[in-house]
Design a protein that fits this description.
The chain is an alpha+beta fold and about 130 residues long. The chain has three helices and five strands; from the N terminus they run E-H-H-E-E-H-E-E. The chain is globular and about 40 Å long.
Length: about 130
């Protein structure tokens, strides 16, 4: 997956909050709501919530002081795509060897981290379990 906005998905919601841990609950709340609106099963809803929490935690760790964390949720029936981003110092990056990153990778598909200038981004998707 390339971190980009999906024109094929029907709805988009953006959440912008200060890049501080005390605002993680808002990201989890929106993530769960979006996943439920996309008609994901309960396990997948929880996995999206957890993935957003882990992605945002990783980005908050590298964020410049007093910057905003942006989470963009695109969804359609059966799928959710998330892009979380923050301004960072271009030196520190999310720890892709951490347990949090491994959890993130295990509950999502097409996980990707990249930078565009001073913007650090984590993108992933989740789809309804078809089993």
């Amino acid at each position: 997956m390339s971190i980009s906005r999906r024109t094929s998905l029907s709805d988009t919601i953006a959440l912008s909050v200060p890049a501080r841990a005390e605002y993680l609950a808002l990201g989890r709340l929106v993530a769960a709501s979006v996943a439920a609106r996309a008609d994901l099963d309960l396990t997948s809803v929880e996995e999206v919530r957890l993935a957003v929490d882990e992605a945002c935690t990783q980005l908050i760790a590298v964020a410049l002081p007093d910057k905003e964390l942006l989470c963009e949720f695109q969804f359609a029936p059966g799928e959710v795509h998330v892009i979380a981003s923050v301004d960072h110092d271009e030196v520190r990056h999310p720890d892709q060897d951490s347990i949090g990153w491994h959890v993130l990778a295990s509950v999502t598909s097409e996980l990707e981290y990249r930078t565009e200038g001073a913007r650090a981004m984590v993108g992933f998707q989740s789809r309804r379990d078809t089993d």
